[in-house]
Amino acid sequence: MKLHLCIAWCLVLFVVHGGLAGEPTPGLPVPHYHPDPADPDWLAKAVQFHGHLGPWATAGIRAGMAGREAVGAFGYFDVDVTVEGPMVKPPHSCFLDGLQVSTGATLGKRNLKWIKAKDVVVRLKNTRTGRTAEVRPTNELMDLLNPIAEGSKDKKEKEPPAEASQKHDHHHDHRIEAVARKIAAMPEKKLFSVTVR
Ligand SMILES: [Zn+2]
């Protein structure tokens, strides 16, 4: 009886520790994310890539979707993306990750380029047809992305941009995730003006 118990226990340990070699199973990192059953599949996939659900990253996803659809590109290998904007560091630069997910134009494939500028504009070219879309965020979207506007000047301490904060308190996470979900669900026309050439 005792022997049986011992064998069973050894088997459990063997499985838990991943077999003889003791090597960890290959896997992806776990993002900082509070999933909602209503989240679209593409949003969860983007979060897996970026690491958290933030407004700037989500705006980048939607901008890439808008541009790719406007020029009829499949994505990945038939697109050339140039983005202008103040994407020096997070949260603004999170936009670039969103763009990569939704266009398939990536740092690795060298078909995504960033140019430092004051205003955000995405230019997406369908390399098969030559059609190019220019995607500019609306004021309504920029108001969601820049919550620390004029009104905060009288505050004693300037609140750090939501997405840049390293804090991971739940209140904070839920607040910025709520803004991101709002951007994810908004009609495209409210988010961008798109011009095709
Ligand atoms: Zn981010």
Which tags fit this structure?
single chain, alpha+beta, globular, binds zinc ion
Describe this structure in words.
The chain is α+β, with helices and mostly antiparallel strands and about 200 residues long. It has a domain at about 40-145 and about 165-195: 2-Layer Sandwich (60s Ribosomal Protein L30, Chain: A), CATH 3.30.1330.130. It is built from seven helices and five strands; from the N terminus they run H-H-H-E-H-E-E-E-H-H-H-E. A five-stranded mixed β-sheet has the order 2-1-3-4-5. Helix 4 links the parallel strand 1 (about 80-85) and strand 2. Helix 2 (about 40-50) packs across helix 4 (about 95-105), helix 3 (about 55-70) packs parallel to helix 4 (about 95-105) and helix 3 runs parallel beside helix 6. The longest helix has 17 residues, at about 55-70. The radius of gyration is 22 Å and the shape is globular. Residues about 10-15 and about 150-160 have low confidence and may be disordered. The structure holds zinc ion (ZN). Zinc ion binds near residues 52, 54 and 163.
Percent of residues in β-strands: 5-15%
User: Main sheet: which strands, in order across?
Assistant: 2-1-3-4-5
Question: Which oligomerization state do the chains in this entry correspond to?
Answer: single chain
End-to-end separation in angstroms reads 79 Å
CATH structural fold name of one domain = 60s Ribosomal Protein L30, Chain: A
Provide a short characterization of the protein structure:
The protein is of the alpha+beta class.
Fold blueprint:
Elements: H1 2-16, H2 41-50, H3 55-71, E1 79-85, H4 94-103, E2 112-116, E3 121-126, E4 132-137, H5 139-145, H6 170-185, H7 188-191, E5 192-196
The structure holds zinc ion (ZN).
Residues 50, 52, 54, 56-57, 90-91, 94, 163 line the site of zinc ion (ZN).
